[in-house]
Write a structure and sequence with these properties.
disordered N terminus
Length: 165
C-alpha cells in the first residue's frame, strides 16, 4: 500500500464501513458497443447530495486496462474540465503511483471522507491514502459534476431522473 499521509490514523476519521453506505445509483460506461466499466455510487442515506463525504464511487471493469491508460484518461478529463493548476498536477502524480492495471472483474473504489481526505481500494484491499485535497473532489467530479462528459451516465449514477419527452 502506498501512503501519502503524514498521519495515517487521521485518514480513518470520517470513513464509514462499506456496509454502512447505501447505493445511490448505478450506470455502465460504454464506448460504441464495448462496456468499459459499471459504476456504483454510495453514501449514508442513498440520496446524492453533492461531493460531500462520506461518498464511495466503485468502478467494476469489463475490460483489461493498463494503469497508464487510466491515468491518461483521468488527466484528459481534468483538462477538459479546466483542472490544470499545480495542485491538480501534483495530485495526478500521486494517483499515478496508485492506479493498478485492471482486468475484467476488478473493482477500484474511491472513498471521500467527511473531512475531505480519501483513499483508493483495489478489489477490496486498501491501496492508497490521500490527504485533504481539492483533487479528491475533482477526481469524483469526472463522474459526478454537471460538466461530466456523459450527462446521462451522471444522472443514472446520482439517481436523478432523466430528461422526459
Amino acid at each position: 500500500m502506498i501512503r501519502f499521509s503524514l498521519i495515517p490514523l487521521l485518514l480513518w476519521v470520517g470513513f464509514h464501513p462499506a456496509s454502512a453506505l447505501d447505493r445511490i445509483g448505478e450506470s455502465t460506461f460504454s464506448v460504441l458497443f464495448w462496456d468499459i466499466y459499471t459504476a456504483q455510487l454510495f453514501n449514508q442515506d442513498g440520496r446524492y447530495q453533492g461531493l460531500n463525504g462520506p461518498l464511495r464511487l466503485s468502478l467494476t471493469y469489463h475490460r483489461q486496462i493498463d494503469a497508464n491508460d487510466l491515468l491518461e484518461a483521468t488527466e484528459s478529463q481534468w483538462q477538459r474540465m479546466g483542472y490544470q493548476d499545480a495542485a491538480s498536477r501534483q495530485w495526478l502524480q500521486q494517483m499515478g503511483l496508485c492506479f493498478p492495471d485492471v482486468d475484467t472483474g476488478h473493482t477500484l473504489s474511491f472513498y471521500l471522507a467527511e473531512d475531505s481526505s480519501a483513499r483508493l481500494d483495489w478489489n477490496g484491499q486498501r491501496r492508497c491514502d490521500f490527504d485533504r485535497s481539492e483533487g479528491n473532489r475533482q477526481f469524483l467530479a469526472i463522474w459526478l459534476s454537471q460538466d461530466s462528459a456523459d450527462p446521462d451516465f451522471t444522472r443514472q449514477l446520482t439517481g436523478e431522473p432523466g430528461d422526459q419527452p
